[in-house]
Amino acid sequence: MGIVVDDLQVAIGSRPILHGVHLEVRDGQRVGLVGPSGSGKSMISRAIMGLLPPTAGCTGSIELNGRQLVGLPDAEMAALRGAAVGMVFQNPGTALNPLLTVGRQIALPLELHYELTADEREGRVRAMMRKVGLPDELYGRRPHELSGGQQQRVGIATALITSPRLIIADEPTTALDSMTQRQIVDLLVSLVDEAGAALLFITHDFSVLARATRYCYVLDAGRIVERGRTEALLEAPHTPQARTLVEAARRLTLHVDGTGAQETETEEGR
Amino acid sequence: MNRPDRRRVPEAPARIAAEHGPRGRLRRAGVVVASMWAHGAGRFALVTLGLWILVSLVSLFWTPRSLWETNGYAVWAKPSADHWLGTDGVGADVFSWLMAGSRTDLVIVALTVLVALAIGLLLVAAMTSRAAALAHGSVVLIDALISIPTVLIALMLAVPLGASVAVIVLACGFGYGLNLARVARPSAMLAARSMYVESARADGASAMRVFATHIVPNVMPTLVVQCSLSAGTAVLAEAGLTYLGVGVPSGVPSWGHSLSTSVRFINIYPLTVLWPGLLVTVVVVALNLFGDALREAADPLTNPRLRGDDGHRRR
Questions:
Q1: Segment A229-238, tens digit of pLDDT
Q2: pTM of the model
Q3: Domain that includes residue A13, residue range
Q4: Chain B interface, mutation test: which of A42, A52, A141, most B Cβ atoms within 10 Å?
Q5: How far is the alpha carbon of B38 from chain A, nearest alpha carbon, in Å?
Q6: Looking at the partner chain, which of B2, B9, B199 has a beta carbon nearest the beta carbon of A187?
Q7: Which string of DSSP letters, residue by residue, matches B147-199?
Q8: Do B206 and A78 touch (CB under 8 A)?
Q9: Which CATH number covers residue A49?
C-alpha cells in the first residue's frame, strides 16, 4: 500500500499548475520530490491533503492505500488528514500557534482523531516528545521559547503522533541552519523507518535529498521530467532541468565551503 | 547524529505557564488579578466594579429607604442623615434609588456585552470563512449596518417592544457587535491565513474547530478591551435611551432613570443630578480602565509573571 498519484492535473482558475503528474510512494519507501520554486511541488502535497485553494480544480487520480481521494467529500478527507497522512511544514516558527503550549500542539491530532482521556493523551505526547528528542520540561512552553530545531521537532511530533501511514514533509529543513537540517532529516528518516511508513520528501535542496531519500522525482513547470535513484540522479542527471538543479546545488556547496571540492557530499566528509 | 538540540532551560522560580488543568487555570487567574491590583488604574477598576456588584446584591435585600417611600414635605431635599444624598422631586430617597438602579445597569451591561460578543464572534466566523462569498459579503454587510446609529435602532425596536431593557440590550448589543467584529477583523484574518491554521487543517481540524482553537484565542485580547469599552458605552446608552423614553420603563430603578427624572431641574437642584451623573462617570471610567488593565495583565507578552521563563528569551 502507499500513495499512487496518476495523471494529476491541477489548475487555479484558468491557470494550469500541474500537467498530468504521476508518482508513487509505497509503504516503507522514502521518496523525494525536487524542483525549482514555482514548479508545483507544494501543489502536489496540497492536492494529496485535499487542501487546495477553493478556486482550484483537480482531476486525475490520487489513491491512498487503495482509496480514491480525488472528489472525496471534505468531511471524509478531514478524517484522513492527520490520521492517515501526517504533514511536516516548512517554517516551524509560523506553523505552530504561538498561543498553544508544546504539549497542546502535539496533542491536537490526537484530540481530533482519538477518544482518549486527558491523562492518556498527555502520556502519549510525552512519549512522543522523548522520541523526537524534546526535553520533558518543554511540555508547557510556547513556541517562541524554543529554538528553530526544537520547533521543527514539535512539528514532526505533531505529524507522527497518530502514526500515519504516509508522511509528507514539505521543505521541512529549508528554514533551518545546516547543522540542524541534518539532525532533523536524520530524525525524520529514523522515525519514518521505525514506523514503516511512507515518506514523501519535498525539497529543492539536493544535499538534504540525498540524505533523506533513495528514490526521487524531478518536477519542472508542473511535469515530472525525470525519476530515478537519488544517487544516480545526482551523479548523472539526464534532463537539462535536473542538471541545472544539481549544478546549482554543487555551485552553492562549493561557494559555501570555499574549499574548491567538486562534490556535493563534501559536507558529509567532516 | 540524533542529538537533541537542547538549550539550557533556565530554572524559573514560578512555572505558572506550564501548569495545565483547572488548578493551573485558577493560579493563572490569581496571577492576572494580582497583576491588575498592582497598578493604580487596575486597582481602581477592580474596587469600583467589585463595589458595583456588591451594592447590586445588597440592594436586592436592603436599601436605606424603601423605593416607594415618598415624602411630600421633603422634595429636592439636601443631603442629610435621613436622606444621604437628598431626595428627588417626589421626595424619594436618591441614594436608595441609585443603589437599586445599580443592579438594573449591571444586568443591562452584562447582557449587552454577551449579545455583542455573540454577534461579534458570529461575524468574525463569517469574515474568516473560506467561502469567498460569505467572507466578502459579511464585510460589506458590516460596513453597511455599522452606519446606522444605535439610537435609531433603539427607536425602531421601541415600536414593537415599548420602553424596556430589551431595547437597550438588543440595540447596543447589535451596534457594539458590529464594532467588535470590525475591530477584531485584522487579527482574525492574520490568524485565519496563518501557517498554523493550514497546519491544523492538515491535522484534520474542521472549520469550526479551527475557529475555536486558533482564531478565537487570537482575537480575544482585542475583544476583551473592546468589550470593556462597550460595557462603558452601554451604561451611557442606558442613561441616554432612558432619558429619551425608550430605555428602562418608568418605575424601574436605573441610573438613567434617576438622571432623567431630575435633569430638567438641573439649574435649580444641581446636586440631585450630580449624584447619578458622577456615578455613571466613575463606572464608565472604571470599565474602560478594567479592559486595559485586564489585557495588560492577561497577556504573557506584557506580563512577565505569566511567562515560564521570566522574560529571559523574550522576542
A1: 988 888 888 8
A2: 0.81
A3: 2-251
A4: A141
A5: 25
A6: B2
A7: TS-HHHHHHHHHHHH-SSHHHHHHHHHHHHHHHHHHHHHHHHHHHHTSHHHHH
A8: yes
A9: 3.40.50.300
Nearest to B232 by CA among B255, B251, B252, B216: B255
Rounded to a whole number of angstroms, the distance from the CA of B4 to the nearest CA of chain A is 5
If one counts the domains in chain A, the total is 1
CA distance B271 to B265: 10
Nearest CA in chain A to B19: A140
Note whether B8 contacts A: Cβ–Cβ < 8 A.
Answer: no
Judged on CB neighbours under 10 Å (0-12, 13-18, 19+), B195 is middle
In a domain, A84, yes or no: yes
d(CA A84, CA B24): 34
Determine, for residues B313 and A145 on separate chains, whether the beta-carbon distance falls below 8 Å.
Answer: yes
**Is residue A173, in this structure, part of any structural domain at all?**
yes
Nearest CA in chain A to B196: A95
In terms of Cβ atoms closer than 10 Å to its own Cβ (0-12, 13-18, 19+), residue B233 is buried
Per-residue pLDDT tens for B270-312? Answer: 888 899 999 999 999 999 999 989 988 887 778 888 765 444 4
Q: How far is CA A14 from CA A21, A37, A156, B166, in A?
A: 18, 20, 35, 52
Largest CA distance in chain A: 58
Chain B residues inside the 8 Å CB shell of A108: 200, 203, 205, 213
pLDDT tens by residue, A108-131: 999 999 998 989 999 999 999 999
Q: Quote the minimal CA–CA distance from A241 to chain B in Å.
A: 30
- Residue B78 gets which letter from DSSP? P
Kindly list the structural domains of chain B, giving each domain's residue range(s) and its CATH number in brackets, ordered by start: 73-284 (1.10.3720.10)
pLDDT at B10: 45
Domain-located, residue A240: yes
Report which DSSP code applies to B34.
Answer: H
Which residues of chain A make contact with B18, given a CB cutoff of 8 A? 101, 137, 139-141
Side-chain-side CA neighbours of residue B212 (13 Å): 6
Verify whether the Cβ–Cβ distance A142 to B17 is below 8 Å.
Answer: yes
User: Is A59 a member of any domain?
Assistant: yes
| The pLDDT value given to residue B308 | 58
